[in-house]
Each structure stands twice: as structure tokens, then as C-alpha cells.
Amino acid sequence: MDTARVIVVEDEPLTCATYAKILAAEGHSVRTASDAFACRAALKAAPADIIVLDLGLPGIDGLTFATELRNGGDVGVIVVTSRADVVTRIAALDEGADDYLVKPVHLGELAARVRSLQRRRTQARGRRCRVGCWTIDLDRRTIAEGDQRAVSVTRGEFDLLAKLIDAGGKIVSREALCEAMSRGDSDSDVRSADALVSRLRRKLAAEPDLIVTAPGFGYRLGPPIEPI
Ligand code: CA
Fold first, then answer.
1. In Å, what is the CA distance from 80 to each residue of 54, 196, 226?
2. Which terminal CB of the chain, N or C, has fewer other CB atoms within 10 Å?
């Protein structure tokens, strides 16, 4: 759940591509924009969780755009600036940035800051998400379809589903699923993961492609996982 929808706003093409590449390698879904106008258009097309925002942009200045983003809704902002002075850094934080990095940016640090901000955002929001037609609350351990009554699942079934959600849509091996749901129960084997998946598919049949089989390996969630 700590993967994020990121937009990198940076007018220098190589830098932009480099940031995007490292963040995509971390599993984030990354789009790029060369200025504030392009970022506005990208946000209009689809929401984002985190904006990595260069301050020195043509057109609308990064600081001004940070204010707009703060007022516009729930998006995290990490400012990247070559202006290392403390006045700029304070201004950036005051204007709504959640974090900042000074150029030249260490790529590992950029990745870590994005991870950390997304983790804080997820924790603050509570761990709720939508997967297809299902709304899943990982803290209250409930699964519901819209406003309708919650579906009753066993502890093992919920643990398995939570493990698939935590994987963010990537394939999870049957062994790893088994481990997640057995809690040290040594007699569970990989077939019990298959059995739980069958039961979950029956109970959550309103979303036919909810759990996708990766033959001979494991399972993943089919629909995108949208934090709410
Ligand atoms: Ca720039």
C-alpha cells in the first residue's frame, strides 16, 4: 500500500526522466510534466498521491504552484530545489510542501522520501482502499460493497486478501500467502492458500477478476488498488 501515484514536475528532460525511472523501479505509477500547466492537465485526467515538484519552473513558479496544490486537495508535495538557502526551504514548507530535497538529488534519498511521505499519508488516512467494487478497511478488517452490508470472511481469508493488497497488485507466491495467514501454524500448506482463494472468490464474486492466478506460482489482485 506504500506505492503511490506520482507526478514528477521538472522542466529539465534528463533530470525528469531520471527521477521518473527510479520511482517507477520502486513500483510507483509515475507520470511526468514539464511545467505547472502540464501537471494541472495530468491531475485533471487522473488523481495523484504525490507531486515531486521542481521549484525553478518556466511559467508558473514552483512555490506558487505548491500553494495551488495545497489548496486544491489531498496531494503530497515534495519540493526539489537548487536553491539551498534556508529562506527558500522555509517558504516551500510554508507554501504547502510536505518535504524538500536540495539538488543535486541523491536518487536513493528521493525514493526514500517518496516512500516515507506515502507511508505517512496512508497512516493518516487509515488503511482503507477500493479494489474493484469492494471497499476494504484493513484496520477494521471489513469488506463491503458500496453502502451494503459487510461480507463475512474468516481471519485467514482476510489475512490473505490483506497480503495481496499490501503487495500493491504484484504477484504473491502461495508460500508467502500461506505464511501471512498461518501465523506460525505449521500444518498449513500451499493448498490451503488455494482453498482460501477459492472461498474468497466465491464470497466476493461481485468482482469476477478480483484474484488472478499466476499459474504455478501464486496470485495477485486484478483490479487496481485505490487508496481512499
Ligand atoms: Ca528547473
1. 5, 46, 27
2. C
* Amino acid making up residue 115: R
For ligand 1, the distance from its centroid to the CA atom of residue 207, given in whole angstroms, is: 44
Å from CA of 97 to ligand 1 middle: 17
Q: For helices 62-72 and 86-94, what crossing angle results, to 10°?
A: 20
Cα(81) to centroid(ligand 1), Å: 8
Fold for 128-227, please state it: Arc Repressor Mutant, subunit A (1.10.10)
User: What is the whole-number distance in angstroms between the Cα of residue 56 and the centre of ligand 1?
Assistant: 4
Cα of 58 vs centre of ligand 1, distance in Å, is: 7
Domain ranges of the chain: 5-125, 128-227
Q: What is the pLDDT of residues 182-221, one digit of tens each?
A: 655 545 577 788 888 999 999 999 999 999 999 989 999 9
